[in-house]
């Protein structure tokens, strides 16, 4: 049987949405997990679906303290003996969710300051969300390939555009359709306001506007992430993105809550 080899630089959105998020990124010989809102068992199951080996992980990097991003991070770090990279404010807000932190190797991360995990250079940057210190990430492999990650943000200012420009691949929030959100009888008005606020989530149209504002000359893959299961549909998210990317060589994948994406190269 012919062995299936991962690309040198690749990523896989293992889960995306309000019930749990996890993103596998590999550059050269280094594999890192960005966020883990899944149980340890579920994370391993999903990685196995894509022939990814959790024992090769070098670290977990957390974007913010909401349970759907940090809930399983402590379990994974302890299980595989790998460090957790987290800002001090996010750590403070995650203590109970992380579990036995004394048994973990916790590394301080600071937005605006690059750090390296093996062959990956990671540059966290501040984004606008209703958490203590939410981070987006610009990840550069030793080959020079760049992946941008921004999945929980209410607005996309100059800093976000700067860090997402010139990437070879992007994981970008396309959370909701405003009309579906406002018509949703299950969402009380304060929650609708929170989603649409400057510290909430990007709509499909806002994600498309952000795409239109950045340098996409090297962009080969776009993953639309954190879609609301109640206030969005893949077709609506894709239509907004295609409105900007139509005619380009960029492929678009919609990340799902219950199914990993294919393993994509960058």
UniProtKB/TrEMBL annotation:
Annotated ranges, domain Metallo-beta-lactamase: 19-201
InterPro entries: Metallo-B-lactamas (IPR001279), RibonucZ/Hydroxyglut_hydro (IPR036866), WalJ/YycJ-like (IPR052533)
Coiled coil: none
Pfam families for the chain: Lactamase_B_2 (PF12706)
Name listed for the protein in its UniProt record: Phosphoribosyl 1,2-cyclic phosphodiesterase
């Amino acid at each position: 049987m012919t062995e299936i080899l991962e690309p040198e630089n690749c990523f896989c959105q293992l889960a995306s949405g309000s019930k749990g998020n996890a993103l596998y990124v590999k550059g050269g010989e280094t594999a890192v997990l960005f966020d883990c809102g899944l149980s340890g068992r579920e994370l391993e199951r999903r990685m196995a679906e894509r022939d990814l080996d959790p024992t090769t992980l070098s670290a977990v990097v957390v974007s913010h303290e909401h349970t759907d991003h940090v809930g399983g991070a402590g379990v994974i770090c302890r299980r595989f003996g790998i460090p957790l990279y987290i800002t001090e404010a996010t750590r403070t807000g995650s203590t109970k969710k992380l579990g036995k932190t004394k048994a973990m190797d916790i590394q301080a991360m600071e937005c605006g300051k690059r750090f390296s995990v093996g062959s990956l250079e990671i540059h966290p940057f501040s984004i606008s969300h209703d958490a203590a210190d939410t981070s987006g990430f610009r990840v550069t492999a030793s080959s020079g390939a760049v992946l941008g990650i921004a999945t929980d943000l209410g607005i996309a200012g100059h800093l976000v555009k700067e860090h997402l420009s010139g990437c070879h691949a992007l994981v970008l929030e396309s959370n909701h359709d405003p009309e579906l959100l406002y018509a949703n009888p299950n969402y009380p008005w304060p929650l609708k306001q929170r989603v649409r606020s400057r510290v909430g989530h990007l709509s499909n149209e806002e994600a498309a506007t952000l795409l239109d504002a950045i340098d996409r000359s090297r962009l080969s893959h776009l993953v639309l992430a954190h879609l609301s299961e109640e206030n969005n549909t893949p077709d609506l998210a894709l239509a907004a993105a295609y409105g900007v990317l139509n005619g380009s060589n960029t492929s678009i994948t919609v990340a799902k809550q219950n199914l990993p994406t294919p393993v994509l190269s960058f």
